[in-house]
Amino acid sequence: MRYDPRDGRDNAPRAREAPGTRIRTGRIRSSGHRKDAPGRKSRSFEDRLNGALLDVAVHRAVAYRDIVDSHFGGHPYTARRGIDRLKKSRYLVETKVKGPGGGSFSVLSATKGGAKLAGRVAKLRGLDSRQRAWSGLGKPVDLVHDVALYRAARDARAQLEDQGATVFRIRLDAELRGIVAARSEKARAAGGRRAADAARRAAARELDLPVLEDGRVLYPDAQLEYSHPDRPEPGRVNIEIVSEHYREGDVAKKALAGFAVYAANSRAGRAVSSGLRSAARSLAKSGDSGGGAAGHRDDPASVEL
Question: What local confidence, expressed as pLDDT, does residue 246 receive?
Answer without folding.
Answer: 79
